[in-house]
Design a protein that fits this description.
mainly alpha; 2 helices; about 55% helix
């Protein structure tokens, strides 16, 4: 399922460029919820 559905979407967003392009940030989802949340918030700025 990942290779058929998710990977093409990830590749699409990775290849976007320009000031209005969506950002793609990979976040490891293993660990404490608070730590993962902090990582996501840091990536969002």
């Amino acid at each position: 399922t990942y290779h058929a559905q998710t990977k093409p979407l990830v590749d699409f967003y990775r290849n976007q460029s320009g000031p209005d392009a969506a950002r793609y940030c990979r976040v490891n989802g293993v660990g404490a919820v608070e730590s993962i949340r902090d990582t996501i918030f840091a990536a969002l700025g």
